[in-house]
Amino acid sequence: MTATDISSLKDLISDFLTAEEPAHQTSIEALTLEDGHLHLILRTTAKGAAFLQDAQTTLEDRLRQHPAVSSLTLSLTAHRPAGPVPRKAGAESGHRPLALGKRPTGRSAPPEACLPDVWAVIAVASGKGGVGKSTTAVNLACSLARLDLRTGLLDADIYGPSLPHMLGETQKPVVENGRLRPLERWGMETMSIGYLVDKEQAMIWRGPMVMGALTQLMSDVSWGALDVLVVDLPPGTGDAQLTLTRKLSDKLKAGGAVIVSTPQDIALLDARRGVTLFEKTETPVLGLIENMSYFCCPHCQERTDLFGHGGARKEAEALNIPFLGEIPLLRDIRCSADEGTPLVLRDPDHPASQAYRAIARTLKDRLFPSSC
């Protein structure tokens, strides 16, 4: 990839858009080119999407004629229209629809149900940020994979994807038969929006665009046959959680939600809201994890309850949900995440690794009792 290639591709796209649909305000949101694969995101309006539905093939053909492009993924970001996108004359000629959000090109068959070959989904959630939810999700997924479950891990945080860094993964996914192929890492199938965009790029998207991208990270990825897909949700109780519970209702009923919280009252207050959301959407709550439960001095081994201790256990009892366990606040957990090797793999005998594995075993025993 050279600056000249990027510049010439941008000129090609701009010329096409200006000549073909100047009134629809379509523009380049992001463009990356690595190893001959072009990933292009166009920002458009509803009318622009209707135009591109018919013009998609022409644009793709022109891009593939560029000497630096061997394959491409074309995506749109925009507000979803209130009704069906109108088709122009000639749309019956076989041009496939280009959905809003993120959709790899080259797909001609009707979309399948989300995750048809996944048995169960475990959503790892928190009511607020900064409680170590992503670190917990990664180590739980690795532990489940080590328990001989076919495991996938989906980073559902569109604004702040952390999975690529925490797994030490720098490759880009490829498109096979019109679908993204997950990246295999540490014995798991993994996917994140962070694999598709530059790590320095800010995802300045409105809610409907984010929901479209999240939906297609589930439906337009070849997850294959999995026993369990662990989904690392963004913090809070908003659109992402509602989209997941709506799209994956049956898979979540086979699995459920795991809530991560620290022991202090303010975090538990937000965790309670998370439990309420999943209960209202009829999603089983598998239990509550107390993260950063206590701190052990690496020099004298003295234990200090920096954020209090036992609050999550008491909250779980009050909410009548299982208490899954305690994870300490340790430097080794942070270092392993920064280095790209989950602690349960980097140091399996570490006390925190044993805590993660115990929780994973509890989840497996509940979801797959016949395999125990």
Task: Walk me through the structure.
The chain contains twelve helices and 14 strands. By secondary structure, the chain is an alpha/beta fold. The protein folds into two domains: 3-93, 2-Layer Sandwich (Alpha-Beta Plaits); 118-371, Rossmann fold. Helix 3 (133-146) packs across helix 12 (351-367), helix 5 runs parallel beside helix 6 (239-247) and helix 8 runs parallel beside helix 9 (311-319). GO terms for molecular function: ATP binding.
What key attributes describe this structure?
372 residues, elongated, Rossmann fold, alpha/beta, Alpha-Beta Plaits, 22% strand, 2 domains
Number of domains: 2
Overall shape: it is elongated
Task: Estimate what percentage of residues fall within beta strands.
Answer: 15-25%
Number of helices: 12
Fraction of residues in helices? 25-40%
Write the layout of secondary structure elements.
Elements: H1 3-20, E1 27-34, E2 37-43, H2 46-64, E3 71-77, E4 118-125, H3 133-146, E5 151-155, H4 163-167, E6 175-176, E7 179-180, E8 183-185, E9 188-192, H5 207-219, E10 226-232, H6 239-247, H7 249-254, E11 256-261, H8 265-280, E12 285-296, E13 303-304, H9 311-319, E14 323-329, H10 331-339, H11 343-346, H12 351-367
Helix pairs in contact: 3-12, 5-6, 8-9
Function: Binds and transfers iron-sulfur (Fe-S) clusters to target apoproteins. Can hydrolyze ATP.
Keywords: ATP-binding, Hydrolase, Iron, Iron-sulfur, Metal-binding, Nucleotide-binding
GO molecular function: ATP binding
